[in-house]
Description:
It is an enzyme of class 4 (lyase). This is 2-oxo-3-hexenedioate decarboxylase. Residues 81-260 form the Fumarylacetoacetase-like C-terminal domain. GO terms for molecular function: 4-oxalocrotonate decarboxylase activity. The chain is of the alpha+beta class. It has one domain (58-261): Fumarylacetoacetate hydrolase, domain 2. The chain is 26% helix and 29% strand. The strands form two sheets. Strands 1, 2, 3, 5, 6, 7, 10 and 11 form an eight-stranded mixed sheet that branches. The protein has a five-stranded mixed sheet with strand order 4-13-12-8-9, with no helix packed on it. Helix 1 crosses helix 2 and helix 4 packs across helix 6 (206-218). The longest helix is centred in the first third of the chain and has 17 residues, at 5-21. The protein is globular and about 50 Å long.
Amino acid sequence: MKLDNNTLAQLAEHLESAELKAHDVTKITDEYPDMDWDDAYAIQDIIRARKEGRGNKTVGLKCGLTSYAKMKQMGVDTPVFGFVSDYMACAEGSDIRTAELIHPKVEAEICVVTKSALKGPGCHVGAVMAAIDFVIPGVEIIDSRYRDFKFDLKSVIADNTSASRFVIGGRSRRVDELDLRTLGVVLEKNGQIVAMAAGAAVMGHPAAAIAALANHLGARGQEIPAGSFIMTGGVTEAIAVQAGDSVNVRFQDLGTVAMRFA
Length: 262
């Protein structure tokens, strides 16, 4: 790590304040170009501790940058990881207040809940499939705190991978009833189809993203506990939304997730 504890704490407060007050900031690597990956995750951990210290519960884990094409573009070979808190959860079909956000975008996500713990190193797709209790469809509303959505990977990790809101809907299914690689997704905005994809868009298989998460946590002496809710990463590209928009996402064999932006 390159940054001292005081600087890490100051940056965590800076980024969380931007989230809670819905104002943008410049990416933190502009001022701290030498910060490393450990610094970035340390800032995210402090943000999580700040939220939990105020009584917010961490209700899930999330994977980002799960497209191989995007990874290659950014010069990395692993996804990035974050968390979601209880206040970020929005009911299916509800109105999401854009006044509480900066520049939101929506991504369709295949989500799972685990029935047994997963721990790296050496976690693989087979182990993940055996550990999944059920699969459920979701939509993540990402909202980078960085001005004009311009950031680098260390900055976005520190910013909790742009976590902001999420919606779970449709119906749950057992994993052995689905082919997660070919599971189709159609994202509609205001009645128009704006994105289509299949589960293989997530690292070739959504379970591969969870294995990467388990291996990431294992390197830090942590694990994915049984009963964890995990968002495996955007199946579709991120689509910008604004007040007045309605979003409807259809998941093959999993039903529909809908929301409005007010």
